[in-house]
Design brief:
By secondary structure, the chain is mostly helical. Among the domains are: 184 residues, no CATH class; 88 residues, no CATH class. Strands 1-2 form a two-stranded antiparallel ribbon. A two-stranded antiparallel ribbon has the order 3-4. Strands 5-6 form a two-stranded antiparallel ribbon. The longest helix is centred in the middle third of the chain and has 30 residues. The radius of gyration is 33 Å and the shape is flat. It starts with a helix and ends with a helix.
Length: 413
């Protein structure tokens, strides 16, 4: 109950949703009487994958962060070390970054509760909270040690290469000494040095100094707590995180038509039995469709005429090995797919740049053999400049300039 109150206190203008609408009863199925309807988004595929597009947009709007694509973001969104997926320690204390961590943590907790409704997650979260408090008291939270301990860790820091140099003020690694010296006159470095000097010069024995240091440490604790919770959530859902990365990489090589077809097939598979029961009730007394040839259905739900099926050649199948042995039904769909992104991308992966020359070629071996022939023909047509200029010796013999110079060097002329 307290969690619900906290949620609506944080989002007062959000419309309340009736949880009873998340489930729709299924008839004639006692083992699975309910099916989840609105609990997951289409990207989440009923709890199989993460949907972090909104969090990715918030991450891109943060100051001083690397502009990762969505695929790269899925690999580093739980790595908060500077230089990898995270930001500098000074930039982490902003309200924008704190709000981003809150959105990411809320989504992961919500996803875990929706996918694991039978587990006692409150007990698990309490255990993580106690683990964080213990590590914070011992000053063992990675990346959030006190200033003295942070300096010791910085001195023992392992750099990527022996020539690399670490800038303590900017919390950033540079490839070599020359690059490090070149950035010393930059505005960001000068500002970072001033902030570092201001923190070190603040007297701690005064009331104002103690108050400022305490407030600063409390804000660091709040940010570190959210980062710690996100790491624990991701480690607990490592399978879903890996599946999400694989699914995004797979969908990037698909066309929009293939994505829509896959999503439609998935929904039909998950709710096929429920829809079948509803259709049986609605179509009682109506005659069933007679479709022995399994013709495609038209817009009205009836099979298309057989003459139209023959006209478009939908009975012919055209496999394409370059597209992963995908079978296209009909000549029109087959001809159209040569200009689609999936086919062109697969040709470029084979090293073929001029894809417009490979129309109607579906075999990988034929495509590679044709590309090698094109390369050989181009090299054969290249004109040797030494064979254009003709030279004549003292006896009147005409020969290419290259041959003439070679004979002259050998003293044969």
């Amino acid at each position: 109950m307290s969690r619900i109150k906290d949620h609506h206190a944080r989002y007062p203008n959000e419309q309340a949703e009736n949880p009873e609408q998340w489930y729709r009863p299924r008839k004639n199925d006692e083992q699975h009487p309910y099916i989840v309807d609105n609990l997951f988004t289409g990207e989440e595929a009923f709890g199989r994958f993460f949907d972090l597009h909104a969090c990715h947009e918030l991450f891109l709007n943060l100051p001083n962060v690397k502009r990762h694509g969505y695929m790269q973001y899925l690999e580093v969104f739980d790595d908060f070390q500077p230089g990898k997926g995270g930001v500098k320690r000074a930039d982490k204390l902003t309200d924008q970054y704190f709000r981003y961590l809150g959105e990411l943590m809320d989504y992961l907790e919500s996803f875990m509760r929706r996918t694991r409704p039978l587990e006692n997650l409150d007990k698990v979260f309490d255990g993580w909270q106690k683990e964080f408090e213990t590590a914070w008291e011992k000053d063992e939270v990675p990346g959030w040690q006190k200033e003295s301990k942070a300096k010791i860790n910085a001195s023992a820091r392992t750099l990527s290469t022996p020539e690399a140099v670490w800038c303590e003020a900017c919390e950033k690694e540079f490839k070599n000494e020359n690059v490090y010296k070149g950035h010393l006159n930059g505005r960001k470095h000068i500002k970072a040095v001033e902030l570092l000097a201001k923190r070190e010069e603040t007297p701690e024995d005064t009331p104002d100094g103690l108050l400022a240091k305490t407030a600063h440490r409390l804000r660091e604790r709040a940010v570190a707590e959210r980062e710690f919770r996100i790491k624990k959530l991701v480690n607990a859902m490592k399978v879903e995180r890996d599946d999400t990365r694989v699914n995004v990489e797979r969908r990037q090589g698909m066309t929009e038509r293939e994505r829509q077809q896959e999503l439609e097939n998935f929904y039909n598979m998950m709710s096929g039995s429920a829809n079948k029961d509803d259709k049986d009730e609605k179509e009682e007394g109506e005659e069933k469709l007679y479709n022995p040839l399994k013709l495609p259905l038209a817009w009205d739900g009836k099979p298309i005429p057989f003459w139209l099926y023959r006209l478009h050649g939908l009975g012919q199948e055209f496999p394409c090995e370059i597209c992963g042995n995908f079978v296209y039904r009909g000549r029109r769909a087959f001809d159209k797919h040569f200009n689609e992104t999936n086919h062109i991308t697969n040709l470029k992966r084979l090293g073929i740049t001029e894809t417009y020359l490979f129309r109607d070629i579906t075999s990988i071996e034929e495509a590679l053999r044709l590309w090698e022939k094109i390369q050989r023909d181009r090299k054969a047509k290249e004109v040797d400049d030494g064979a254009i200029v003709q030279m004549e010796d003292a006896e009147g013999n005409v020969m290419p300039e290259k041959v003439y110079l070679d004979l002259q060097k050998q003293g044969l002329l």
